[in-house]
Write a sequence for this structure.
């Protein structure tokens, strides 16, 4: 074990100060969420004298805009996020692999096009995209939303996979080819497992984007039974505008799955990010 | 087991630049062939062409008479050991060794049985459930060998498999490789830049320079009768000494010293013409122990004690222009210890030889041991005595099992 020195204390204090901007809003959310909805104290800073968990159960049972229950929105968010991450990894990983390994002009061009997607603002395309989704009958559907999120996350995912796989020695793939494996098998059994760190990074980044996204979900599935959590929380604002504790309890419930997920996978995620940064 | 035939095989990565050029080579059934040469000579490209990881720009590769030039690696039934071993890091040792068998549809029982056999053969039985990250370099090397052996391929390809090991382990692994080849009898093509491995491992060795095959022969023949100055410079440690000599009235002039060379040992060069002379360090001998031979007077610049013998370094009689010619023909920076203004030659002599740095001393050169090369092309010039050179001790030719 390391000895606790003056430097350790200094570092610890520094980390706590660094954590404050993240912990303080969390404190506010939980603090307000614990206040009785009918008689809030008026300040989110002081701990409520008569804290209650009633807001949580009430928020859980309420329907937001009336089209879907809060629990239903949670399920929608889970399915949309899970579906997007799965579809993204299944498409971006092989695409990134081919771009990384093919030294042709076409692959360079494709990489350039995907990189362009990192820069262009999505909002530019939202009206034609909405029009298109209506025409193909995917507006207000989970499939449509998953496709949009997958496409939105694709440039970053391709960028990350391509960079990572370009740095991976080709000898493993060549060894597998000499061992008798065909290209698809080489990818599935040799390349993809070794790309686990970057898959973790892609999953976390795209998962957070989908989980937290409000605007896209509002436009494409707002007022439908496919509403996700951020839209459901927002609908609480309109309906219970005087009952902030209820809104904050809903926000806290929306946050919980992400925090629990991070708590369990913290070590793995950190390692993934670290290995990606180090190449 | 298989016979490999390369017929006019060329590979260009960039138009106009050949990685290998018009290679004709036959590796016999069960033979251990070493491809040797300096970095960038095309030896690894040739191995990759054999594996099917690259396709030749021109020419034909046949394995057992079948044209495999355009076949993918999976259809060639070859196994390859890579320089960095390429052990799949996410699989256990057992899964690594059995991977090729699994891919080719072996049943779980068959694969497990074969992996156990191979692991026992290579002393890996205790490591089967370990991850590659917990293994040492030597153990990884064995796993790579195990993966190659497990499938019973008809051809082993090895790309500098010992280069990542420390010197001591390399020596013992060399012996193990040789023993394994004798036991399995599978045709093997082994790539190395280390001339010691070429000398010790192969039945025959092929020396490459800039993608062109220079000489294919038993290692001892490469040492005793190099086809050109490049092969002479590359094979042997310490490397052969080179100097430009001139024939004058029957004597070979090295600088201002005349070496008496009998007619029979004289190079086929007219009087007054120059010739590139090669002298192996061990052919510069202690005059007290040798009768006859030509005498060469030198000034010892450096003495290095190796235990069993000593290396004496002395200035070359060659001029700066001569040195440029030598460099061009041998293309080997390390062929002798050099300084900006002069070149040092080397003699390998028994430890008892009483020479210190700064001493003037006399060395004997057995003239029949001199090598002569054309100073323009570098090709070997045969003297009358050339055929009398001792034949290879390990001139075993192809190994037939």
């Amino acid at each position: 074990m390391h000895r606790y020195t003056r430097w350790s204390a200094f570092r610890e204090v520094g980390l706590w100060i660094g954590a404050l901007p993240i912990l303080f809003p969390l404190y506010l959310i939980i603090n307000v969420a614990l206040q009785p909805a009918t008689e809030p104290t008026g300040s989110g800073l002081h701990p409520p004298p008569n804290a209650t968990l009633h807001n949580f159960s009430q928020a859980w049972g309420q329907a937001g805009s009336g089209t879907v229950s809060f629990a239903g929105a949670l399920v929608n968010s889970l399915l949309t996020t899970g579906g997007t991450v799965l579809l993204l990894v299944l498409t971006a990983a092989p695409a990134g692999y081919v771009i990384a390994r093919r030294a042709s002009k076409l692959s360079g061009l494709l990489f350039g096009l995907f990189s362009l997607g990192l820069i262009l603002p999505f909002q530019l395309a939202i009206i034609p995209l909405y029009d298109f989704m209506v025409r193909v009958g995917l507006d207000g559907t989970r499939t449509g939303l998953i496709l949009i999120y997958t496409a939105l996350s694709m440039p970053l995912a391709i960028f990350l996979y391509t960079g990572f796989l370009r740095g991976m020695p080709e000898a493993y793939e060549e060894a597998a080819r000499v061992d008798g494996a065909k290209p698809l098998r080489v990818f599935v059994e040799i390349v993809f497992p070794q790309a686990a760190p970057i898959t973790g990074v892609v999953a976390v980044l795209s998962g957070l984007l989908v989980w937290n996204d409000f605007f896209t979900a509002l436009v494409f599935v707002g007022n439908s039974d496919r509403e996700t959590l951020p839209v459901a929380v927002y609908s609480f604002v309109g309906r219970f505008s005087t009952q902030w504790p209820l809104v904050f309890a809903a926000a806290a419930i929306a946050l919980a799955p992400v925090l629990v997920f991070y708590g369990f996978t913290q070590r793995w995620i950190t390692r993934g990010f670290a290995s990606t940064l180090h190449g | 087991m298989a016979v490999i035939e390369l017929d006019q095989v060329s590979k260009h990565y960039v138009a106009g630049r050949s990685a290998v050029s018009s290679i004709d080579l036959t590796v016999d059934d069960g033979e251990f062939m070493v491809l040797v040469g300096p970095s960038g000579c095309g030896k690894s490209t040739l191995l990759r062409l054999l594996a099917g990881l690259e396709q030749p720009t021109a020419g034909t590769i046949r394995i057992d008479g079948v044209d495999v030039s355009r076949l993918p690696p999976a259809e060639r039934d070859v196994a390859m050991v890579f320089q960095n071993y390429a052990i799949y890091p996410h699989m256990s040792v057992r899964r690594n060794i059995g991977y090729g068998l699994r891919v080719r549809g072996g049943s779980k029982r068959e694969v497990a049985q074969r992996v156990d056999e191979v692991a026992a053969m290579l002393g890996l039985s205790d490591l089967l459930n370990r991850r590659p990250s917990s293994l040492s370099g030597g153990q990884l090397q064995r796993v790579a060998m195990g993966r190659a052996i497990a499938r019973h391929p008809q051809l082993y390809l090895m790309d500098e498999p010992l280069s990542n090991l420390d010197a001591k382990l390399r020596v013992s692994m060399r012996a193990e490789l040789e023993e394994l080849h004798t036991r399995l009898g599978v045709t093997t093509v082994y790539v190395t830049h280390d001339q010691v491995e070429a000398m010790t491992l192969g039945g025959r060795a092929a020396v490459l320079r800039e993608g062109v095959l220079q000489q294919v022969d038993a290692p001892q023949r490469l040492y005793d009768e190099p086809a050109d100055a490049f092969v002479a410079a590359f094979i042997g440690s310490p490397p052969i000494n080179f100097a430009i000599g001139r024939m004058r009235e029957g004597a070979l002039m090295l600088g201002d010293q005349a070496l008496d060379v009998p007619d029979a040992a004289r190079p086929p060069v007219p009087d007054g013409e120059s010739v590139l002379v090669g002298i192996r360090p061990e052919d510069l001998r202690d005059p007290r122990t040798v009768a006859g031979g030509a005498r060469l007077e030198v000034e010892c610049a450096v003495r290095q004690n190796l235990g069993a013998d000593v290396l004496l370094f002395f200035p070359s009689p060659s001029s700066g222009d001569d040195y440029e010619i030598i460099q061009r023909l041998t293309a080997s920076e390390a062929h002798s210890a050099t300084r900006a203004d002069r070149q040092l030659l080397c003699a390998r002599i028994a430890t008892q030889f009483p020479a210190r740095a700064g001493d003037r001393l006399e060395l004997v050169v057995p003239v029949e041991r001199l090598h002569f090369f054309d100073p323009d092309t570098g090709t070997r010039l045969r003297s009358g005595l050339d055929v009398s050179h001792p034949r290879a001790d390990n001139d075993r030719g192809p190994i037939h099992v």
Observations:
- The interface with chain B takes residues 169, 171-172, 174-182, 185, 190, 193-194, 196 of chain A (CB under 8 Å).
- Chain A has twelve helices and no strands.
- The longest helix of chain A spans residues 244-278.
- The mean pLDDT of chain A is 87.
